[in-house]
Amino acid sequence: MTAYYEFSLNDACEFARRHYTGFDASAALTAEEVGDGNLNRVFRITDTHGHGVIVKQALPYIRCIGKDWPLTRHRAAREARVLQRHGRLSSGGTLALLHVDDTLSALLLEDLTGWTVWRQALLTGSNTSGVAAALGRHLARVLYGTSDFALASAEKRAEVARLTNPELCETTDTVFFNDPYQDHERNRVPPGLESDAAELWADRALKHRVAQLRLRFQCDTQALLHGDLHTGSVFVREGECRVFDAEFGFYGPMGFDIGLVMANLMLNFCGLPGWGNAREAQAARFARVEDIRELWKVFGQEFRTLSATSPSSLLREPAVVADYLQRVWRDSLGFAGTEMIRRTIGIAHVADLDDITDDACRENCQRRALWLGRRLILDATAISPLGLCNWLRRMAAEGE
Ligand code: SR1
Ligand code: MG
Predict the structure, then answer these.
(1) What does the mean pLDDT of the chain come to?
(2) Rounded mean pLDDT of 387-398?
């Protein structure tokens, strides 16, 4: 068996050549490193006819931090399991996995020419209508399909054990629920937000709610989640989506995946005044509210339809499903708040805020995101889907 080694460009080509049947045997291959993610190395391998595949290799540490933060490289095999499981439940909803090698911690994935990463599409003002609905449908299928609604008791428990992901969950636990709620050296508090961060660290009511969310994250095994579902983990094209980067996948509360998508749409909403002119920014902010509305609406519709087919007569009851979805909504708001806070003052930020060039405008947008995240956590039980959309629409109308 080959031992693990870190791929050079040439090694990545050889790996693709060995496991991908789409290349002509005689065609020369070229590799370029394309990943700008925090954790792994990602290569695009192309032949002279323009056929391409992606090679993703996990390092035994977090790439953006270095060897000081070791992290299991078996996350590659775990990602493969999540992609396979989700892919069976939502055909076309995830990036196709072509090969996995646990020893080399490497995946071979389809290359999506003509698709764009959702975050990029949002930042460049591309038309992304239909994407949120497609993602809502995908989420309903994978979350329902791995939940107690669909699975028999013993099968569900076996799945929870088979798909456990302790090291990556610990990373999430640290960067979501620990560091951003104290003055920690790993945080990256933006210039100008020091006193906002200090005020947040002193907010005991907020920390109480975050503690409750942390316990939901740790203890609730509702469904197999993607685990890091931000807009940088979704390829989009004309109303379609393909989810990728599932290495953080684990059995957890559904609201964690839904909340992260909502949060990243709201981070974009908060940052938009820093991108383009005021009129364009306002129109795009209204479009983000529509995205959130569609995501939740289609998720709920599809989940209700699927629940009517549950093998459990108890869980088929519409009132039970309605209660369940209400709980998922509340969790989603809370987890959305934690994502917004950690993406503003924690270790891993987002381009929607950080890449705003005007310093004063960037600071305002970051402050808006921090405030909104805090409100979502504190008010999660009082905000309905319609209430959230109306609230965001008011903010957009008033330029807040
Ligand atoms: C230490 S950095 C951790 C973050 O990077 C990944 O992209 C995930 O979002 C994770 O939370
Ligand atoms: Mg990722």
Answers:
(1) 96
(2) 98
Q: Determine contact, residues 293/385, Cβ cutoff 8 Å.
A: yes
Domain 9-110 has CATH 3.30.200.20: yes
What whole-number distance in Å separates Cα of residue 246 and Cα of residue 294?
23
Question: CA nearest 113: which of 206, 210, 237?
Answer: 237
C-beta atoms surrounding 267 within 10 Å: 31
Choosing among 3.40.30.10, 3.90.226.10, 3.40.50.800, 3.90.1200.10, the CATH entry for 116-398 is: 3.90.1200.10
CB of 53 closer than 8 Å to CB of 98: yes
* Minimum CA distance residue for ligand 1 atom 3: 348
User: 0.85 cut: is pTM over it?
Assistant: yes
Pair 351, 119: CB distance under 8 Å:
yes
- DSSP 3-state of 178: helix
Tell me how crowded residue 89 is: count the other CB atoms within 10 A of its CB.
Answer: 19
Q: How confident is the model at residue 36 (pLDDT cuts 50, 70, 90)?
A: confident
Average pLDDT over residues 40-64: 93
Residue nearest to atom 9 of ligand 1 (CA): 228
Could you tell me which of 257, 234, 226 has the C-alpha nearest to residue 117? 234
CA of 233 relative to ligand 1 center, distance in Å: 11
Instruction: Judge whether 9-110 and 116-398 match in fold.
Output: no
Q: In ligand 1, which atom is closest to the CA atom of 62?
A: 1
Backbone angles phi, psi at 105, to 5 degrees: 50, 45
Question: How confident is the model over 273-311, as pLDDT tens digits?
Answer: 999 899 999 999 999 999 999 999 999 999 999 999 999
Domain locations along the chain: 9-110, 116-398
> Is residue 42 within a helix (H) or strand (E), and if so which, with residue range?
strand 41-47
Residues paired with 44 in a beta bridge = 32, 54
**Alpha helix (H) residue ranges in 202-244:** 204-219
- Laid out side by side, the sheet with 106-110 consists of 29-33, 41-47, 52-57, 106-110, 97-101
Considering every ligand atom, which ligand is closest to the CA of 346? 1
Q: What is the pLDDT of residues 145-167, one digit of tens each?
A: 999 999 999 999 999 999 999 99
**What number is the average pLDDT over the span 94-121?**
96
